[in-house]
Design goal:
- The complex is a heterodimer of chains A (367) and B (385).
- The N and C termini of chain A lie far apart (93 Å).
- Chain A is 34% helix and 31% strand.
- Chain A folds into 2 domains: 193 residues; 134 residues, GMP Synthetase, Chain A, domain 3, CATH 3.30.300.
- In chain A, helix 4 packs across helix 7.
- Chain A has 367 residues and is an alpha/beta fold.
- In chain A, a hairpin with a 5-residue loop joins strand 11 and strand 12.
- Chain B has one domain: Hydantoin permease, CATH 1.10.4160.
- Chain B has 15 helices and no strands.
- Chain B starts with a helix and ends in a 21-residue tail after the last helix.
- The chains are: A alpha/beta (367), B mainly alpha (385).
- At the A-B interface, helix 1, helix 7 and helix 11 of A face helix 8 and helix 11 of B.
Chain lengths: 367, 385
């Protein structure tokens, strides 16, 4: 009996001694500032070349469009890590990156310095999510972070709803995740891409994509080209395929796209891109389709193929490979290192062929 | 009751992530890891099937009883201690890497020793039970966690962000001559059968290890997944830069409408269960091996009350874990687990040879001591059904 009592006492004192351990090292939620997006720019000062801008959520109980409040803080420093540390002196609460899903690189930074040093910091931090969205801010990151969208309900949600089909499903918005950017930074035969964000009035406009070599921006595509890129590289749905005809413009709403790459060997490899697009006509001159259904499908396909080949050649001439043709070629040749050397040499002369198979399902409600 | 055997096979197959098998394989991905894998599959299957087949001849007996039966006493004790050492260090390594990962992703502000203390308290408690309870715990935890683990695995395999070209590039390196370290690492995936060394005590006369095909099928699947999925997500080059490879790979997945959108946290919780299982099993086995060195503790796999010695031995293991944690950092831990994986392979080889020898001796009727079991009763003295 006595021994059981001693044991119980021991157990109780042990469990009580555990209690304060949890309390002393954890900060409460009301003593934390949630960072909702972070931006990285270059500063003019050569001693402090990095400018970090953080958008911090001000929590409130109101939940309606336009009711989100945020605070934007900026700091220049010699590196990103130092800038974030120094920034803590500007705010009254501990910074918390666990909910930050938007990282904006300033366009100027990507043109001058590249993104590698910032990536080092992002990839190293344990609390930064691999599935964060990364993008380029045009003209700089801080202008994107300072935009206050009218439709925002939670601090920071307007920007991430536009990506990854979470909210809008725009066909010219390219979604890029942090882990994918890191993969593309190092991969042989696959180069980075980043969507370009511009702030317009009280909203964001994300309809262009920047193609990069391993460090810097090489090419920024127009919205039309971005849509073609997105359809062929990411199989994005809900896009349009438009073609001028003698009687007026013909627009097909695409509901399904499948694309597949094959690389035909030879002296100079030929990249064949097979695209299958299915959809219905959204706008067309009257009774055009019923006259020549098959012919129209073929014509649309040919038109799209020509446009795509133009784009692919434009990308190839910059010697970048956002589609991963090089990686595909390497995979076909068992990943031998000599093949990679050969591909690098041959890529500027590679030929492209696009075979588009368009299937029109209908004309909508009228003929 | 053969299902208990396969629970071990399957959970060790999934556990390979925590003893850093994938990162060892991936660091050799361009020089011989891929070609070592088929050899490891053959070797692992062979080891598993032959060993468990030989154990069929000795129902109700664990490895310590076989030593007692066929070997001189001093040799039996030495082999028992070797086995105990190998098992206990395996548990210690996993416990350390696990508490490290948890500390990094869940709560970096607490001291790593607190994580370790809580985890090892749970492990001491679980491992000091009797063999039968350990096996029941194993069944419950595995049934709870494996559906979600399989769900995550298939979510990863079917993800559109998985780059099959990168996987094909690495798979194409199968023409390189195989190298040794990845071979040793890959055979770990098949090591689940090693539980027969202790849990064979719980089998009854006429017991057969049926359905041995499960071992190559499941374990090869786990091996391929744990090697190729990180490559598919991080590409052939960047995958070499990561330290916490699988945690980072799980961070590439997203549950849009789940209450936690980072799959990482779900994954870490599930691997908490698996790590606890692993440590429970290894420490329990090591404890029983240590106990088998003296005559005071005859094997009693269904003992409801816990003898004090169980607590003492498991507490010693926990203290060793703290010592280990004090001396280690990430890189040293990686090195030690590499050494452990290599050493484990040779211990498995030794075990295989011994067990074949025992089976031959049994057939010839050569034994040092008579069969301790009465003809119709189990090893623990309870009348059979």
């Amino acid at each position: 009996m006595k021994r059981a009592g001693i044991r119980l006492l021991l157990l109780a004192s042990f469990s009580w001694s555990l209690l304060p351990l949890g309390g002393c090292q954890l900060k409460d939620i009301d003593k934390r500032f949630f960072v909702v997006s972070a931006g990285f720019d270059v500063a003019d000062n050569p001693a402090k070349p990095y400018r970090v801008t953080l958008r911090l959520a001000l929590t409130s109980s109101k939940l309606e469009a336009g009711a989100s409040h945020t605070q934007v803080e900026t700091m220049d420093a010699a590196s990103v890590a130092e800038a974030v540390r120094h920034l803590k002196a500007n705010v009254d609460k501990e910074l918390e990156f666990g909910h930050c899903r938007e990282f904006v690189f300033g366009r100027e930074m990507l043109e001058q310095k590249g993104f590698q040093e910032v990536m080092e910091w992002l990839a190293r931090r344990r609390d930064i999510q691999g599935v964060s969205n990364v993008m380029i801010g045009d003209p700089d990151a801080s202008s994107i972070l300072e935009t206050k969208p009218l439709s925002e309900r939670y601090p920071g949600n307007a920007l991430f709803l536009t990506f990854g089909n979470e909210g809008t499903e725009a066909s010219d918005t390219v979604t890029e995740y942090l882990f994918d950017l890191y993969r593309r930074e190092y991969e042989t035969g696959l180069d980075p891409v980043l969507p370009v964000v511009r702030s317009v009035q009280h909203a964001y406009q994300i309809n262009r994509v920047a193609l990069l070599d391993k460090e810097k921006i090489r090419l920024i595509l127009s919205p039309e080209e971005t849509q073609i890129y997105n359809m062929t590289a990411n199989d994005i749905r809900k896009s349009v395929l438009a073609m001028p005809t003698a009687e007026g413009r013909l627009v097909m709403a695409v509901t399904k796209v499948r694309s597949r790459v094959s690389v035909a060997d030879g002296g100079i490899p030929k990249v064949v891109l097979h695209v299958r697009a299915t959809g219905f006509l959204e706008q067309s001159p009257p009774r055009l389709l019923e006259r020549d259904w098959d012919g129209l499908e073929r014509k649309l396909g040919r038109y799209f193929s020509e446009k795509t080949v133009e784009l692919l050649e434009k990308i190839r001439d910059q010697n970048i490979d956002p589609y991963g043709f090089g990686l595909h070629y390497l995979a076909n040749h068992y990943g031998r290192p000599s093949t990679w050397e050969k591909w690098k040499e041959l890529y500027p002369r590679v030929k492209f062929e696009v075979r588009t198979d368009v299937k029109i399902q209908g004309t909508g409600l009228i003929r | 009751m053969v299902r208990f055997f396969y629970y071990h096979v399957i959970y060790v197959g999934m556990m390979n992530i925590m003893v850093l098998v994938p990162s060892m394989l991936i660091s050799h991905r361009f020089n011989g890891a891929v070609s070592a894998m088929p050899i490891a599959i053959v070797s692992g299957t062979l080891f598993a099937c032959v060993t468990s087949f030989c154990f069929q001849r000795f129902p109700g007996m664990g490895l310590p009883e076989l030593y007692k039966r066929f070997l001189p006493r001093w040799l039996g004790i030495a082999l028992n201690l070797l086995g105990a050492f190998a098992w206990a260090t395996g548990g210690i390594i996993v416990l350390y890497s696990y508490s490290n990962t948890i500390g990094l992703f869940f709560n970096p502000e607490t001291s790593p020793y607190i994580n370790l203390a809580i985890m090892s308290a749970a492990c001491i408690w679980a491992a000091s039970r009797c063999s039968r309870s350990v096996q029941f715990t194993q069944e419950m935890l595995l049934i709870l966690s494996s559906p979600v683990i399989f769900w995550i695995m298939f979510k990863a395999i079917l993800s559109p962000w998985l780059d099959w070209d990168a996987i094909r590039v690495v798979a194409g390196r199968i023409t390189e001559p195989p190298s040794v370290v990845p071979f040793f690492a890959a055979t770990f995936v098949f090591s689940g059968y090693l539980n027969v060394t202790l849990f064979n005590r719980l089998t009854e006369r006429g017991h057969r290890y049926k359905h041995l095909w499960i071992i190559p099928v499941f374990c090869s699947f786990f091996l391929l997944v744990s090697f190729f999925v990180p490559i598919g997500f991080h590409g052939t080059q960047a995958v070499g830069n990561y330290l916490y490879l699988w945690s980072v790979t799980m961070d590439c997945l997203i549950m849009k409408y789940g209450f936690i959108q980072r799959v990482l946290y779900l994954f870490l919780l599930l691997y908490t269960l698996l790590s606890l299982l692993f440590v429970m099993n290894t420490w329990h086995t090591a404890m029983e091996f240590v106990k088998a060195c003296t005559r005071r503790y005859p094997p009693r796999p269904e003992q409801p009350e816990v003898p004090r010695i169980n607590w003492y031995i498991c507490t010693v293991f926990a203290v060793c874990t703290f010592g280990y944690a004090y001396m280690m950092n990430d890189l040293r831990n990686q090195m030690v687990s590499e050494l452990w994986l290599i050493g484990r392979y040779f211990i498995e080889l030794l075990l295989l040879l011994l067990v074949i020898l025992f089976a031959c001796l049994e057939r010839k009727g050569v034994r040092r001591r008579p069969d301790p079991r009465p003809p119709t009763k189990n090893a623990n003295g309870v009348p059979g059904p």
